[in-house]
Specification:
- By secondary structure, the protein is an alpha/beta fold.
- It has seven helices and eight strands; from the N terminus they run E-H-E-E-H-E-H-E-H-E-H-H-E-H-E.
- Strand 4, helix 3 and strand 5 form a beta-alpha-beta unit.
- Helix 1 crosses helix 4.
- The longest helix has 19 residues.
Length: 258
């Protein structure tokens, strides 16, 4: 079956979304270019996807929607009517309006969205939920999704972008969680957390905390800390885990719409 040159566009603060995108992209073809929407020190307005490429756009779902900063940066990209697969990655609860929002945004950028995928990755805050995902079982399922996408692309029929995707075009945000990770006194000030922050909320001159007005609670700084000393308040984590246990437990599904 024919494969394609793939342009992979991701917003992945803790790496789970990128893992999902990589699994699907590698089955669809060769990744010829990657666009990292985490970068807060660059402009994406000069990113133009070749019309003969297949774009894979992946972003996480936070509180029912895609993070505002990811949407803003996506909107700078020129899609040039390239075929596109969008992937909303969720932390073992639900993807709510995130998938339909991602599809709508890609279409605004002039992408031809021929498939939409919802996939599970480890929860970015309470990592015991969805732990280890995407795992081997997910890999097999995502490969099957890629095969379905390639089959659609190889069809003689006109590629349809008018297919059902769950969710509301109102993009309802379910809350406004604002928890800011902090480093302990043993922080060495290496600055890797500041480099990883997608919003520039961490000042390298005051590395131990973050600007709560900019922080989106993505946990990218925790993932980037080489010493593992940037953390959330353990009392908060324990209370949140207990409160969300019923909603976040069990194995939630990956889904494809095309």
């Amino acid at each position: 079956m024919k494969t394609y040159p793939v342009v992979e566009i991701t917003f992945s603060p803790t790496g789970g979304t990128k893992k999902v995108a990589d699994l699907i992209s590698c089955y669809l073809g060769n990744i010829t270019n990657t666009v990292n929407l985490i970068r807060h020190d660059v402009s994406f307005s000069d990113v133009a996807v070749p019309s003969d490429s297949l774009a894979v756009i992946a972003a996480p779902v936070f509180e029912g929607v895609i993070p505002d900063i990811a949407i803003e940066r996506m909107k700078e990209i020129q899609g040039n009517h390239a075929n596109c697969v969008v992937i909303a990655v969720y932390g073992n609860r639900a993807y709510d309006d995130g998938l339909i929002q991602l599809k709508d945004t890609a279409e605004l950028c002039s992408f031809n969205v021929i498939a939409s995928v919802a996939a599970v990755a480890e929860h970015s805050i309470m990592r015991q939920f969805g732990s280890g995902r995407p795992d081997a079982e997910d890999s097999k399922e995502l490969k099957k999704f890629a095969e379905e996408i390639l089959e659609k692309l190889s069809s003689d029929k006109e590629l349809s972008t008018d297919y059902f995707v769950p969710g509301s075009h109102e993009y309802k945000r379910l809350g406004n969680l604002n928890v800011v990770p902090k480093a302990s006194a043993s922080c060495t000030g290496c600055g890797k957390c500041a480099d990883a922050c997608p919003t520039g909320a961490i000042n390298k001159n005051n590395i131990r905390t973050g600007d709560s007005s900019k922080c989106i609670s993505c946990m990218g700084c925790i993932a980037a800390c080489p010493k593992g000393i940037r953390k959330l308040n353990p009392v908060f984590l324990a209370a949140a885990s207990l409160k969300m246990k019923d909603l976040l437990s069990g194995r939630k599904p990956n889904e494809i719409f095309l």
